[in-house]
Design the sequence.
């Protein structure tokens, strides 16, 4: 972004500064909206709770709420449907960051109705979409460029998730890892600013208390615990894969694109949640209170096993059936319960595994989250941010890595990929980008590169031609590299210039370094026949020379028949 | 962004007119209005949310407290949990939950909630006392002692001030269990000094000092109560007991008399009075006794001790010293008591008293003879 002052409405601010100001505005607006969202969901839930309904009505309320919300989305506010995360990604990659304004009230109303009436889903993903929607609307209001519109939507997404989950670092990482799907320095500043602004506003209205408080944790980790966390990581991966497969199966059969009567599947899924909720009310809604209780060792491991299993079923049914709501909170719930089960059961079986149960609970969150969303970095930092304890970093890293790897092994596509597929979009992900690492210069040089010789500029032209012997001749003149094919050096000029440094056949050459992307070299090859690869430590030392042929070879492109013929000649 | 055009709010170019387009101000105004509307909505909804949240939490707390008072700790804990979930920032709710969990012996869980409270307020007397109880119940006496000290010197609300005393008493009880008598004495003495106007506490401290084997300190505390309060309650009786244990029989008799004046049916004081008076009447070393009386008391004690020694030594193989002592005891006494004879008989009595105390201790309960002989042997103090 350019840093120079730009005149206009606010003449003293550079464009970067104005973009950052807009990020703050997005953060504040999103924070305010999420405060309303959170309060509305809770007030509705309390209203239903205070009504003291009989058991049959308590079964029907979640179903009725989910069905009403699904019908509202279908017939009144179609832009408010779908998964918030996938919609935001679609907006960035498909519609240049444009999210219709109607998505904001639509999502707000549908998810309030659905989650507030007890649907076992969470408010984070919808918050993400609403934040992105606010950012997109503000972007349109201020007539941002197309590229800026693509950048502003993730800014709002981060603000939304930060305000909903009260964790700015997690929000920033999640958006970078899963929504932007790349580490883009240009957008990072605005995302951080918006997330912080949103959290500050949310805390101003809702208080500083986190969604669930994590007890103080300080314990050293030994070999036994490392093994235990590795087992938990593997279990998390398996659990995450089962969860994703269950959601996919339900969506295939009863999802929004099924031929069932509209609203019937959410009604049935909600009623199923209502039945389970009669015995285990903890599974209804996002379930933050149950998570808090598990973090405080309130439940024995048997109870946590039942809660985890029940939540898996009702959340998969609800999300698969198309009930409005997000998967962030249910995923955390599953992680908490899985970690709690292993944390409670482990020391009973192997007494040496005695470690604070809260540590296992948090590590379980990390493992399952990484397995479901395929965002291991976010998973690790989320646990660190929630616990505020460095003691949790190593356990979270172990479980997140293994959870991610095992889940990927068992189910190649992530949950968000599946949802995107179903909505007909092919969207990029950080995982995909990790797997498709761009080629670098060293990979072209690894295949040999072009033959070259470096000579001093005062070398006589005849000697240079002879020394070149069919290779590329390079020389450094006044700190800049110049070069030519040896055979192109020609005869000494008529004006008597006989030195290599003053030969007219030499081209001024842009250089590259070993670690640069090959794409950068390809662009330079449009202006010069070859590119010297120079050491970063010693600019006078040439590591190799890359020509178009080497680039083709690195990409695996076979030479054209004519070229092959020419080369044979 | 690799040198590409930066994202930007579209603005007039530098070479364009500097007057902003009216449409910008319109949009800014619209956005500002939207923000104000959002702010008002958030204020209203969040306000209602907090009001209901607080009301629900308070209702849950009251339910929990009522359940605690009716002795139903399990549902009380559930109610407190609801209150904590609704108002996680309220330390008092967490504390109430922790207390209920301690009552249910769910120490792990209780300790976590206490940790939360102590993270916010490390000086909370209440939380430290609850934590000390958990640590004590789990046998972590060192940690418990530290927590008790934090509770004693911590912060209490004015209506909870008696809990500070309770913390100190529990600490004393803990220290008593560790047989660290000197620290118990120090804590009790400090407690008596800290609350000179608290009669029940002083009586309790006096009793504990007495039970812990510090009769003189106990007597001091009981005397303070007897002298300071118009209705000293059990202080004179306690003082009599303490003085009796300390070997001050004259004082013990006086205190027992005062106790009997207040409560003539006090059998214990009557017994102590009789005992103290008897021992006082047997004591040959009582100051300002005439020589004849002293001699009479020495001989009387020798006579009383003789059957005791005989009963004790019969059937035992005696050493030369014991045989010599028996022979001296059996020897006839001169009719006239000269100072030299009195000194010899006093020395004999002292040897007999030492022999009784070392080889013939009394069985159940000490008699006046035992107390008198112990006093002669120089072991008035226990």
Sequence:
């Amino acid at each position: 972004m350019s840093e120079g002052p730009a005149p206009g409405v606010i003449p003293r601010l550079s464009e970067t500064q104005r973009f950052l100001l807009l990020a703050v505005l997005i953060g504040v607006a999103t924070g305010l909206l999420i405060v309303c969202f959170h309060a509305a969901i809770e007030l509705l839930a309390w209203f239903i709770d205070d009504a003291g309904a009989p058991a049959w009505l308590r079964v029907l309320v979640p179903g009725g709420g989910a069905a009403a919300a699904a019908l509202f989305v279908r017939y009144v506010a179609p832009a408010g449907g779908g998964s918030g995360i996938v919609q935001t990604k679609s907006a960035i990659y498909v519609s240049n960051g444009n999210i219709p304004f109607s998505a904001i009230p639509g999502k707000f109303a549908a998810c309030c109705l659905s989650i507030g009436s007890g649907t076992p889903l969470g408010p984070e993903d919808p918050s993400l979409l609403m934040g992105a929607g606010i950012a997109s609307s503000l972007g349109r209001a201020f007539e941002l460029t197309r590229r800026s519109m693509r950048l502003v939507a993730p800014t709002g997404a981060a603000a939304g998730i930060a305000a909903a989950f009260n964790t700015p670092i997690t929000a920033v990482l999640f958006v970078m890892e899963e929504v932007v799907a790349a580490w883009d320095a240009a957008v990072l500043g605005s995302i951080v600013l918006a997330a912080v602004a949103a959290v500050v506003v949310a805390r101003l209205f809702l208080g500083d208390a986190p969604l669930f408080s994590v007890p103080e944790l300080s314990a050293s980790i030994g070999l036994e615990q490392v093994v235990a966390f590795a087992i938990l990581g593997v279990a998390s991966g398996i659990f995450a894969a089962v969860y994703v497969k269950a959601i996919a199966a339900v969506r295939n059969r009863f999802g929004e694109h099924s031929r069932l009567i509209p609203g019937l599947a959410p009604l049935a899924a909600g009623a199923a949640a209502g039945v389970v909720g009669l015995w285990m009310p903890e599974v209804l809604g996002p379930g933050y209170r149950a998570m808090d209780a598990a973090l405080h060792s309130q439940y024995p491991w048997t109870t946590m096993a039942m809660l985890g299993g029940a939540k898996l079923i009702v959340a998969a049914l609800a999300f698969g059936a198309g009930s409005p709501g997000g998967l962030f909170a249910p995923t955390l719930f599953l992680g908490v319960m899985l970690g709690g089960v292993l944390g409670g059961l482990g020391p009973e079986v192997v007494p040496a595994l005695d470690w604070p149960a809260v540590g296992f609970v948090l590590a379980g969150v990390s493992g399952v989250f990484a397995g479901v969303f395929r965002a291991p970095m976010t998973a690790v930092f989320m646990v660190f941010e929630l616990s505020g304890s460095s003691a949790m970093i190593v356990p979270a890293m172990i479980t997140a890595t293994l959870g991610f790897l095992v889940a990927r092994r068992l189910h190649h596509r992530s949950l968000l990929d599946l949802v995107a597929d179903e909505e007909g979009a092919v969207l990029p992900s950080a995982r995909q980008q990790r797997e498709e690492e761009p080629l670098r210069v060293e990979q072209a040089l690894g295949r040999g590169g072009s033959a070259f010789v470096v000579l001093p500029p005062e070398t006589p032209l005849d000697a240079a031609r002879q020394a070149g012997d069919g290779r590329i001749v390079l020389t450094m003149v006044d700190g800049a590299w110049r070069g030519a094919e040896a055979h192109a050096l020609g005869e000494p000029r008529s004006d008597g210039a006989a030195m290599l440094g003053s030969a007219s056949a030499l081209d001024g050459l842009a250089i590259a370094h070993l670690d640069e992307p090959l794409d950068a070299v390809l662009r330079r090859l449009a202006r010069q026949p070859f590119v010297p690869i120079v050491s970063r430590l010693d600019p006078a030392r040439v590591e190799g020379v890359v020509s178009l042929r080497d680039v083709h070879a690195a990409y695996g492109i076979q030479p054209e028949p004519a070229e092959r013929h020419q080369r044979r000649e | 962004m690799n040198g590409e055009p930066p994202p930007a709010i579209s603005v007039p170019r530098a070479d364009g007119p500097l007057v902003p387009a009216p449409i910008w101000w319109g949009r800014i105004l619209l956005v500002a209005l939207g923000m104000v509307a959002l702010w008002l909505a958030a204020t209203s909804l969040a306000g209602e949310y907090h009001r209901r949240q607080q009301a629900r939490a308070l209702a849950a707390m009251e339910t929990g407290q009522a359940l605690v008072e009716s002795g139903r700790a399990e549902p009380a804990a559930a109610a407190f949990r609801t209150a904590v979930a609704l108002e996680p920032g309220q330390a008092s709710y967490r504390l109430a939950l922790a207390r209920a969990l301690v009552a249910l012996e769910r120490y792990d869980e209780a300790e976590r909630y206490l940790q939360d409270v102590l993270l916010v307020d490390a000086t909370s007397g209440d939380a430290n006392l609850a934590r000390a109880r958990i640590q004590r119940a789990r046998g972590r006496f060192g940690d418990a002692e530290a927590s008790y000290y934090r509770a004693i010197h911590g912060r209490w609300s004015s209506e909870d001030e008696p809990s500070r005393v309770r913390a100190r008493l529990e600490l004393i009880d803990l220290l008593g269990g560790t047989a660290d008598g000197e620290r118990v004495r120090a804590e009790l003495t400090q407690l008596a000094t800290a609350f000179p106007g608290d009669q029940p506490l002083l009586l309790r401290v006096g009793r504990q000092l007495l039970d812990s084997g510090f009769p003189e300190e106990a007597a001091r505390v009981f005397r303070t109560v007897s002298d300071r309060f118009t209705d000293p309650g059990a202080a004179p009786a306690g003082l009599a007991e303490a003085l009796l244990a300390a070997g001050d029989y004259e004082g013990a008799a006086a205190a027992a008399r005062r106790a009997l004046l207040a409560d003539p049916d006090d059998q214990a004081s009557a017994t102590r009075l009789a005992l103290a008076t008897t021992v006082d009447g047997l004591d040959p070393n009582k100051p300002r006794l005439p020589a004849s009386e002293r001699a009479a008391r020495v001989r009387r004690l020798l006579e009383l001790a003789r059957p005791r020694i005989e009963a004790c030594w019969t059937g035992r193989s005696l050493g030369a010293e014991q045989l010599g002592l028996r022979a001296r005891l059996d020897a006839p006494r001169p009719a006239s008591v000269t100072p030299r004879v009195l000194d010899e008989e006093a020395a004999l009595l002292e040897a007999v008293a030492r022999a009784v105390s070392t080889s013939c201790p009394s069985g159940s309960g000490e008699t006046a003879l035992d107390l008198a002989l112990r006093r002669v042997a120089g072991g008035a103090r226990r």
